Amino acid sequence: MKAVILAAGEGKRCRPLTLTRSKVMLPVANKPILEHIINALVKNDIKEIILVVGYEKERIMDYFEDGINFGVKIKYVEQKAQIGTAHAILQARDQIGKDEDKFIVVNGDTIIGPDAIADLINGEEGDATTLLTCKKDDVSGYGVIVAKGKKVIEIIEKPKTLISHLINTGIYLFKNDIFDMIEKTSISTTGEYAITDTIQMMIDEGRPVTTTVTNAGWIDAVYSWNLLEANTIILGDFETDVSKAKIEDCVSIKGSVSIGKNTTIRAGSYIVGPVVIGDNCDIGPNVVILPSTSIGNNVSIASFSYIKNSILMQDVRVSTHSNISSSVIGSNVITGPNFITEEGEKLHIILENELNEAEKLGTVIGDDTDIGGNVLVRAGKMVSSNCRISSGKTIAEDVPTNALIN
């Protein structure tokens, strides 16, 4: 069986991180979201993958290439205009071919476990289109499935009242006739061709559409701060491996900690897992790293710094006496000494003209930003890409792209 992964969108609600990469390439536990999806497919013996790319496609193609290093065979098709999921799936028609009886479609910006894919495959019934669903108490912001037994009656996008606890995961098992149905789909009020509209049309025409419910791992990182929750969950499956690292004397390591090759952990450092640290890093001396932290490749963290529940991407430089909590730091960010991210809970954040709530957050900093010494970022305030912030500043408002704060 082949799988189509939809990876063409930007992910605007994850800005500023997606100003320089697509959402599918955001790292969780030091691997892009898309890599976690591919690994889940491989564990179900699905190794022919069609990637529908668009926004920042070169970054995806350079990383995955032909897929051989990931145990799969990847073919790429481009969605030149991001005008909906149905339109994206249609781009894969030629690669699927007429002889392919069925195939899987996965949204490339959600993290799934192999058991979720297995549940979808095992839930197939005859000629029916199959939707993978899961149950959530809070269904706001999701597409909701109304079903009678396994039969899908209706798909309702983001209902304002509680109709069902079954939400659409964006993972489907389709038959080849889905392409003909997509061509009959009308454009929605949002200007897109949505696959949920196609499926609803199939339901209205009396075609069989069923749902299978999964209790397996499925994480939808809608906003940049959701990456922290996803990171915590994925790190829970890691095992300790420090065999390739250089660990100096008087280092304390507790819990599940994975450290990459050519990484040095200097004397007096204290690490409590789950934590993953990449290759070619220089940590310490006397650095504290606490649970649910991912540190990418080529990162240096200078002495007497404290990192907790955070994601530091590649090529980050953290100077001495810094305190980073519940934050996501983009690639190639440099901070001066005494850099502090204030941590807050149940923060109200305006993003894309919508008011959203973050359960717990320090800050999110975009790529290529240079921050001076003695800088404090207030809880929930975001710093965009390619910014320059002088020493001694308190950041109490969001900082736009290319900003210079003297």
From TrEMBL:
Residues 2-221 form the Nucleotidyl transferase domain. Gene3D superfamilies: Hexapeptide repeat proteins, Spore Coat Polysaccharide Biosynthesis Protein SpsA, Chain A. CDD domains: NTP_transferase. SUPFAM superfamilies: Nucleotide-diphospho-sugar transferases (SSF53448), Trimeric LpxA-like enzymes (SSF51161). Keywords: Transferase. The keyword Transferase applies. PANTHER family: BIFUNCTIONAL PROTEIN GLMU, GLUCOSE-1-PHOSPHATE THYMIDYLTRANSFERASE. This is Bifunctional protein GlmU. It comes from Methanolobus vulcani.
